[in-house]
Design goal:
The complex is a heterodimer. By secondary structure, chain A is of the alpha/beta class. Chain A has 7 helices and 15 strands. Chain A has one domain: Rossmann fold (3-Layer(aba) Sandwich), CATH 3.40.50. Classes of the chains: A alpha/beta, B alpha/beta. Strand 14 of chain A pairs antiparallel with strand 10 of chain B, so a sheet runs across the interface. Bound molecules: flavin-adenine dinucleotide (FAD) and adenosine monophosphate (AMP).
């Protein structure tokens, strides 16, 4: 079974993000693979291990530096990487998904795993768009996955509980936390990753053009900083705090 | 140019989600600027009463009532909605930023060729351009995302927009839905939190972290939640420890909540936790460490042992009712 894994390379969740005159500056941030995509990659490895054979191919759209993120997943155990190299980070999910869909068409995977959302722009759009472009079904927010008889049986987490959804393969499945525990790359894995095949393609080679729509980020600011609140000491201060919640903050 | 707004309602078994009423409220405000009307679409099976309820907000409601629409599925919903939308023309689509709303918005974005803004906390129109405010990078940055297009889609963060007022003049119209073959089949729906208040919609959220010391003490958090009619949440530390289910987790890899009041018990306030609750209106923190980062964003901080403090708080809350 050939499994494609879509990975996003994002500023680490603890990274400081700067805003300089209304523009984002992530130059000092440490980058890492978005956590949900790590679940996606781990799941691909587990499926291949349980089936005894298969290939996990990791895909990324982004600038040259993102090659490092692909290498990280090769070190974890993925077999091959496809890097669609762009000049800068693309923040338009329509463009990203066009590129991914074009590259995926050349590969014809049996299953596509992605994160249900990236932790950078909090979108959760790209996986679904890829599926729509390929004309295949998708299930997002999946916390349990079983592959059998050309089908995927997914547990999808929704607000009030779980839905059990069955889809024929190929399909795009978006990983949620709880799907598995991603392994750490071993030293041997890191050494092996250096020799694994990693190809680079450009949007032009894929014949994909940037969408012309006028939807864009027009500004960035820091959230309003909160002024220091009131601090109390000792358990008995709850009496006062509860009074303030009622009389001052008026929230109860 | 189309000017009308379509709100897509969300419900579970006919019970309307609060975020739908917030979406109607947000849409009504925006409709004034756009010079258009607000319509609502509701899909499901046997949901005429829900449609009637929505119409009490003074809006025309289009109801798609079909046994095939009983459970949400992006396929059935978009098969029903897309032809309807193409026939009528709408400028803007608003739904809740719930797992369902996000899923549908992504599908509609592809099928209607419209850009989408997710997890929106601010919404306005500038000369027909839809201008949204969205927290990004775990809430560390607030972005402005503008959509200058014929159509646009927005999912709003629950609990951030005011509920719509009730009004006269609503109506209900049934729209026939043609649903063809489906690829994804919903086999089963497992209700986990039946009767419980959903975290993302709760007015008050009480969350416990590693500072509660042991699994058995989570009961204390649930009791506190019950005493004030709140939903119970958790930090990732105690979810990973297996003390509570992941569906309770608040934060970057959990749920985003925006209640009136958030009470953090024994939670240090890591950036990933703050990502899920920093837009709460009032924050109370109980923590033994006076330097815990959570106190930097707490409106009321209590430096004390959770195990001693929470029972007293329960008593105080009980006195209120
Ligand atoms: C990619 C990524 C994603 C993450 N996503 C999330 C997420 O979604 N949600 C999330 O919460 N975390 C998330 N985390 C984890 C996060 O970094 C923290 O590790 C976690 O939030 C810590 O949980 P905690 O505050 O309960 O535990 P701790 O950090 O251990 O804090 C416990 C606190 O309790 C206090 N305490 C101890 N005893 C008592 C007592 N008796 N009474 C009162 N206070 C006491 C301590 O002073 C301390 O401040 C993520 C991390 C990563 C790397
Ligand atoms: N630039 C990208 N390269 C590869 N995969 C991506 C990229 N952007 C998004 N994805 C995939 O789509 C998922 C959802 O991303 P998003 O829509 O940006 O929240 C991510 O978790 C990835 O699996």
């Amino acid at each position: 079974m050939k499994i494609a894994v879509l990975i996003k390379y994002c500023p680490d969740s603890e990274a400081a993000i700067n805003v300089v005159s209304g523009k984002l500056d992530t130059s000092s941030a440490k980058f890492s693979v978005s956590p949900y995509d790590e679940y996606a990659c781990e799941e691909a490895l587990k499926i291949i291990e349980s089936q005894g054979s298969g290939e996990a191919v990791v895909f990324n759209v982004g600038p040259e530096k993102n090659g490092k993120g692909l290498r990280d997943e090769l070190a974890r155990g993925a077999d091959r990487a496809v890097h669609i190299v762009t000049e800068k980070e693309i923040t338009c999910p329509e463009f990203t998904s066009r590129l991914l869909a074009a590259a995926l068409k050349q590969e014809n995977p049996d299953l596509i795993l992605c994160g249900w959302k990236g932790i950078d722009y909090d979108l959760g759009i790209t996986g679904t768009k890829v599926a729509e472009k390929l004309g295949i079904p998708h299930v997002m927010v999946v916390s349990k996955l079983t592959i059998a008889d050309g089908k995927a049986i997914c547990t999808r987490q929704v607000d009030s509980g779980d839905e059990i959804i069955e889809v024929p393969l190929p399909a795009v499945i978006g990983a949620q936390k709880g799907l598995n525990e991603p392994r750490y790359p071993s030293l041997k894995g890191i050494m092996k990753a250096k020799k694994k095949p990693a190809s680079q393609i450009t949007p032009a080679q894929l014949g994909v053009e940037e969408p012309t729509g006028k939807a864009m980020y027009t500004g960035f600011t820091f959230p309003p900083s909160k002024s220091a609140g009131k601090k109390f000491e000792g358990p008995e201060s709850v009496v006062e705090v509860v009074r303030l919640l009622r009389e001052e903050a008026k929230v109860i | 140019m189309a000017k009308d707004i379509l709100v897509i309602a969300e419900h579970r078994g006919g019970n309307l989600k609060k975020v739908t009423i917030e979406a109607i409220g947000a849409a009504k405000k925006l409709a004034v600027d756009l010079g258009g009307e607000v319509h609502v679409a509701v899909l499901g099976s046997g949901i005429q009463p829900t449609a009637k309820e929505i119409s009490s907000y003074g809006v025309p409601v289009f109801v798609f009532d079909d046994s095939k629409l009983e459970n949400y599925s992006y396929e059935t919903y978009s098969q029903a909605l897309v032809p309807f939308i193409e026939n009528r023309g709408y400028k803007l689509f608003i739904m809740g930023a719930t797992p369902t709303g996000r899923d549908l918005s992504a599908t509609l974005s592809s099928r209607l060729k419209a850009p989408v803004a997710t997890e929106v906390t601010g919404l306005k129109s500038e000369n027909g351009t839809i201008v949204t405010t969205r927290p990004i990078f775990a809430g560390k940055v607030i972005s402005t995302f503008a959509m200058d297009s014929d159509r646009a889609i927005v999912t709003i963060r629950p609990n951030t927009f005011e509920l719509s007022e009730k009004a006269d003049g609503g109506s209900v119209e049934t729209v026939p839905a043609t649903i063809g073959d489906l690829k994804a089949i919903v086999k089963e729906v497992v209700q986990k939190s039946a009767g419980r208040i959903e975290l993302t919609e709760a007015d008050i959220v009480v969350s416990g972290g590693r500072g509660i010391r042991e699994q058995g003490n989570y009961k204390m958090i649930e009791d506190l939640a019950e005493a004030i009619g709140a939903a119970a949440g958790a930090s990732r530390a105690i979810v990973d420890a297996g003390w509570v289910d992941h569906s309770n987790q608040v934060g970057q890899t959990g749920k985003t909540v925006s209640p009136k009041l958030y009470i953090a018990v024994g939670i240090s306030g890591a950036i990933q936790h703050l990502a899920g609750m920093s837009t709460s209106k009032v924050i109370v923190a109980i923590n033994t460490n006076p330097d815990a980062p959570i106190f930097k964003i707490a409106d009321y901080g209590i430096v004390a042992d959770a195990l001693q403090t929470v029972p007293l708080m329960i008593e105080e809350f009980k006195k209120l009712s």
